[in-house]
TrEMBL record:
Boundaries of every ABC transporter domain copy: 30-270
UniProt-listed SMART domains: AAA
Statement: the UniProt record of this protein carries the keyword ATP-binding: yes
Record has ATP-binding as a keyword: yes
Sorted UniProt keywords: ATP-binding, Nucleotide-binding
Signal sequence, renumbered to the chain: none
InterPro entries: AAA+_ATPase, ABC_transporter-like_ATP-bd, ABC_transporter-like_CS, ABC_transpr_LolD-like, P-loop_NTPase
GO MF, one annotated term: ATP binding
Protein name: ATP-binding cassette domain-containing protein
């Protein structure tokens, strides 16, 4: 579980040193990642681009929650999409569990997403009509998992629903769940693939203050329990107590990184 009382030390954006590199065993490591999107054409008809990420370097370490912060348009969602292997950056290195993602084919990246990455979207995006338990097992059904394996997966879904505080609610359908409970289902669903990297894009934006704190506490708890590296986009400074490191983006670049004080616990040092 994250210790919100950890003393934090603000460190400037600087290249990785051998000391910090040795101290940070990163599940996700970005080095000088830049990303430009096509942005129409100029008056002469030449293609224009917009820079979303500008030489971003960061490490998300196991058992740590890293908050990704910054103003609207600063590049948070783009960075999360790069970490999710949904977008290949224009340049730079993206390593997940030591594998250079930018060298992989689309099929290999899709497999990596399935096997190593859990994604929690802003809105729960649950399928109406299905029970909470069924939401967690949809992918297994689509993949044709049957028999004993499906029973094991059902047991695991049950365990995860218990973990996220929904014991006994597995048979409830979406309309029978509150907003906070839906987000808990969403979190459990993201954990079904047993990821090493958990990504969340403003997971509390649709919730009130008290529910937001509960969801952040839960994300910190599952990060510790399942030894995940979690990266959470948030606008809410009140929620950073649940995180171990904070990376602030400005105009696509890292403007500051705050990490837990101890060398062994350091994360997101860039
Ligand atoms: N598909 C796209 N095509 C062109 N430009 C884009 C695209 N997606 C994002 N951008 C631009 O890239 C920059 C970074 O956008 P991004 O969505 O990553 O920021 P953000 O910090 O997540 O913003 P917000 O907090 O508003 O969601 C912005 O200038 C945005 O206009």
């Amino acid at each position: 579980m994250t210790n919100p009382t950890t003393t934090n030390t603000t460190v400037p954006h600087a290249p990785v040193t051998s000391a910090t590199a040795a101290a940070t065993v990163g599940v996700a490591e970005l080095h000088h990642v830049s990303l430009s999107y096509p942005d129409g054409t100029d008056e002469q008809g030449r293609p224009r681009t917009v820079t979303a990420l500008d030489s971003v370097s960061l490490t998300a370490a196991r058992k740590q929650v890293t908050a990704l912060m910054g103003e609207s348009g600063s590049g948070k969602s783009s960075l999360l999409s790069v970490l999710a292997t949904l977008i290949t950056p224009s340049s730079g290195s993206v390593r997940l569990d030591g594998v250079e993602v930018t060298d992989l084919s689309e099929a290999q990246r899709a497999r990596m997403r399935r096997e190593r990455i859990g994604i929690i979207f802003q809105q729960p995006n649950l399928l109406t009509g299905l029970t909470a338990e069924e939401q967690l097992l949809v992918t297994d059904h689509v993949r044709g998992v049957r028999g004993r394996r499906l029973r094991a997966r059902r047991d695991y879904a049950q365990e995860l629903l218990d973990t996220v505080g929904l014991a006994g609610m597995g048979q409830r359908r979406v309309h029978q769940l509150s907003g906070g409970q839906r987000q808990r289902v969403n979190i459990a669903r993201a954990l079904m693939g047993q990821p090493t990297l958990l990504l969340a894009d403003e997971p509390t934006s649709a919730l009130d203050e008290s529910r937001s704190h509960e969801i952040m506490a839960l994300l910190a708890e599952v990060t510790a329990r399942f030894e995940l590296a979690s990266v959470i986009v948030t606008h809410d400074r009140d929620l950073v107590d649940y995180t171990d490191a904070q990376v602030v983006l400005r105009d696509g670049a890292v403007s500051s990184t705050t990490a837990a004080g101890s060398a062994a616990g350091s994360s997101a040092l860039v």
